[in-house]
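#struct-pred
JK: can someone run the complex with flavin-adenine dinucleotide? inputs below
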Amino acid sequence: MKNIIVAGAGFVGVCCAIALRKKGFDVTLIDRREPGEEASFGNAGIIANSGIHPLANAAIKRQLPVLATNRDSRFRLHWPHLPKLIPWLSQFVGNCNDTVDRHCTEAMSQLLRNAVADHLELLQESNAMGYLNDTGWLRLYRDESQFQQTARERQGFERYGVSFQVVNAGEITELEPHLTRRYVRGMWLDGTPTVTNPSAVCKAYAALFADLGGIFKRTTLSQITQTPSGWELGTEDGNIQATDIVVAMGASSPLLLKTAALKNSIAIERGYHYLYRPLPDKPLTRSVIDTQAGFVLTPMEMGIRVTSVVELVANHTHPTPHQINALSDQIRGTLPMGEQLLDEPWMGHRPSTPDSLPIIGPTPGKKGLWQAFGHGHLGLTLGPTTGKWIADTIAGKPLSAQQQVDLLSRF
Ligand SMILES: Cc1cc2nc3c(=O)[nH]c(=O)nc-3n(C[C@H](O)[C@H](O)[C@H](O)COP(=O)(O)OP(=O)(O)OC[C@H]3O[C@@H](n4cnc5c(N)ncnc54)[C@H](O)[C@@H]3O)c2cc1C
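RT: done, structure tokens with the ligand placed:
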């Protein structure tokens, strides 16, 4: 009988642990912190079933020279890391063509198809439905030409069944009466729910895992070594044996895999958030994004969370929240809000692949070593589905033709 260690208790690891436990395996979930304390803590909370399009595409390739100047509020390149980022950036640029775009959109739409249903299942089982906000996600455009540039995106949504409605300025005001009148067009993704406290949801899922008989152990993992019967994991509390390991440590996954001489093409897209006190008479009822400046306002249990910026770094380093700080006036101009509640902005690490597809599956030549990371902007969204795919694969269930394409094309 397999005994499986799941390394990492963010959304991806916790959901893998649950799905494996449901199959009857002995599962131990390991993290250096409590569940849901890193990237899974401070995200925008969107179960973004609309995230079917990869970041690499022909249009972004044209914008790269301008983006690299760090003058666009949506993106920052950490220039001191450029030498280490060059391999990732070369692959990213190589993916900026219609063929890769089509393949990745097809693969992502398969993965995302059940993302909302898979979350609803876990939200119900973990008694966490109270965190669900099903008012949708509103994408906002300041001028008509900016909206017209979304034609390709909207075609993709229609093709892959992502529900949305195009709304005009008056309809935006009907949906969110207290927003500034700066927006002339919107895209209301009315089938895209959010959660009002991502970390609490992740912890509720971890509690469900414990109720199912799973074990959570808090320790730092430093090494993995293949043994004749499986794997040995080095931790700060001594070594642990397992038949199988699922590496689900988000942006830290490559560090652990490196100890087994394995390489991955992962860069880190850092992001930040601030938190504002909502005004009781000027509520925000759904998550909204200012697509031009690139910030998202999400109504959460603890206040209005404002997430922003993609900051490309090669590894963990000190925060540089210049862009989100510079956006302060624009953010305040979007919605009347009370005081900002954090001393420092929260910072999180999105583990990102050059084609935006997560790495989910076996490691060639390393029996019993499974990988589940690289979910970029969609780790919350795809946690439950990733868990099911990993558990099915480990249990030996034949993969569908599409899953085989998605998994095997990565190696
Ligand atoms: C600003 C921002 C907004 C975002 N908004 C959204 C959104 O709206 N929707 C969405 O789907 N996604 C969003 N994301 C992305 C999402 O948050 C991540 O993709 C997701 O949280 C990754 O989950 P994970 O489980 O892979 O990693 P993590 O949540 O980072 O979990 C990894 C775990 O591994 C543990 N770990 C690391 N190293 C070790 C070690 N050596 N030993 C033991 N444990 C270790 C960590 O403690 C951590 O708990 C956003 C991200 C950011 C930064």
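RT: quick notes.
The chain has one domain: 3-408.
The two ends are 28 Å apart (CA to CA).
JK: thanks, will look after standup
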